Amino acid sequence: MVRIQPKWSPRSWQNCVAQQLPQYPNPLELERVVAQLEQRPALVHPSEILKLKHLIGEAGQGRRFIVQAGECAERFIDCQSEVITDKLKILLQLSLLATHGLRKPVVSIGRIAGQFGKPRSDDIETRDSQALPSYRGDIINGFEFSPAARRPDPHRMLDAYQCACATLNWMRALGESGLTDLSRLRRWVLSSEHGSSSVFDEIKSRMEESVALLSSWGSDGALPGFLSRNPVYTSHEALLLPFESALTRWSEENKSYFNLGTHFLWLGERTKHLDGAHVEYLRGIANPLGVKIGPSTSPREVISLIQALNPTNEWGRVTLITRLGSGKVADVLPPLVNAVRDADLNVTWSCDPMHGNIVRMSDGLKTRYFDSIMSEVLVSQKVHHDLGSWMGGLHLEMTADDVTECVGGESGVKENQLALNYQSYCDPRLNYAQSLELVLRFCDAYKSLALHEVASESVVSQRVVESALSFSS
Length: 473
Ligand code: PEP
Ligand code: CO
Hints:
By secondary structure, the chain is an alpha/beta fold.
């Protein structure tokens, strides 16, 4: 029997079993930090959160597409203007490619301004017979392999708040400067040399033509609203519950609690127990939520989770982010899609092709093969298409840097090159070229599915789709 707490409060999760939380050596110190965080200003406003929920609901109904991407684990040392600017630019580039390729407006969500905590499969890391607590993200402990660094320190939550605040502030400043307007796409070139891509340059000039055309239709040359405002939303995993509940605030206007530390939170694969603390916390806030779905999740479990988190069946509230692995997706995804549809549950489907495709090399480095990642994306897309469902989003771990963490792709990172520029503190990320290639190939596959669909109907309608898809011609 499912045990749901009868009365919810921002701290009612404390009555449930919590996975993946650190054991802070000094509970009083933890309480002092939480009390300070509770006094800090909120980072986002409920109206932005509700807007995002609406947009995600539209993506669930096939009218939009979500690009959610960013770091596996943000690091405090990366809280710098230029690094944040590049993260924003690559997210905008990927969103632009998807807008162009799918002919749909895109919702851009960064794994940014709060993605500081990591769930770990192993509590302990052993090196040269020394065993220490695993690194759990900068919000919990330090990456350096020493007893002092690996000790969980609650003061890190204040640093995380500070970094989230500064990151979001700079993102908003860039937005205010017009950087995120589609009309400014010339400014989306990355600061580093490797950041130029001929494919992106070509799409950019085609988009510029289209944007110029659209603005010439406006009354005074102004861009239609959807082109001139292109906000980037923030998200992170709801992992460190003392931090999350401290940033949870009541909105009198909406008569609801919101997590005002970010726009979107997701429930991790390792913490999605129906009667666990993380589900208990998330069920009471009004933010849009992601739920990571791994390959061993049964359709029944998925249904129960959705019902617990979205009892009113509201569009946009739940995004199911499947991360099944390229070898399993073809078998596991169809029963999940069918079960959700049969139960009439309103969800948005997204595909995380990263977390089911991690392999460890003989030297201990973790990697992901680009081919496996690509294959999970394409199989997921095809399964949804064949079942009459819409895969409404992609969830990626990537970076604007030229890292060598994932093997393959046209840029051709080889297995023996991984150590050349491996920077991740946690999971291997797609580099700039690999990220663009993935989104382009996803869009190409969409185009052929769309063309194939009408091919059987009539030659005339096929031509209509072809010309609609050729956009700038
Ligand atoms: C993540 O997205 O960083 C993550 C750990 O995912 P999952 O919970 O799906 O393993
Ligand atoms: Co990860």
